[in-house]
Design a protein that fits this description.
The chain has helices at residues 14-21, 44-54; strands spanning 2-6, 27-32, 36-41, 58-59, 62-63, 65-68. It has one domain: Alpha-Beta Plaits, CATH 3.30.70.330. It is built from two helices and six strands, in the order βαββαβββ. The chain starts with a strand and ends in a 51-residue tail after the last strand. 16% of the residues lie in helices and 21% in strands. The chain is elongated. The strands form two sheets. The protein has a four-stranded antiparallel β-sheet with strand order 2-3-1-6, with helices on one face. It has a two-stranded antiparallel ribbon with strand order 4-5. The model has no long low-confidence stretch (mean pLDDT 84). Keywords: Metal-binding, RNA-binding, Zinc, Zinc-finger. Residues 81-96 form the CCHC-type domain. Pfam families: RRM_1 (PF00076), zf-CCHC (PF00098). GO terms for molecular function: RNA binding; zinc ion binding.
Length: 119
Amino acid sequence: MALFIGRLSLDTHPRDLEHIFDKYGRLNRLEVKRGYAFVEYQDERDASDAMKETDGLRVRGNRIVVEWAKNGGRKPAENQCFKCGREGHWAKDCRSSRRERRRSRSPRRRFVFVKVVLC
């Protein structure tokens, strides 16, 4: 199971995160990008424990955010829907999370006419 780690300082190194996250279980993958990272554990329980314990932790001066990664922290394949992960359709045509678009109606405006008499 993969975790997304956000709000990292730009000088965060992989060893900084490895030192923090390897306490909770065996890591499959640790990938540090510019300002964020992905950490993948073999066991979902380890990932859950790490998320609970490290969310809000200060790393190199920044308070980090730790959440479940969408799509396991990996880019979808070229022909794969990024919402459901299946091939054969695009996200805009995905039926797995389709919401009906409803237009909200504006409240009716009521006009009150006042007759003003000047003396």
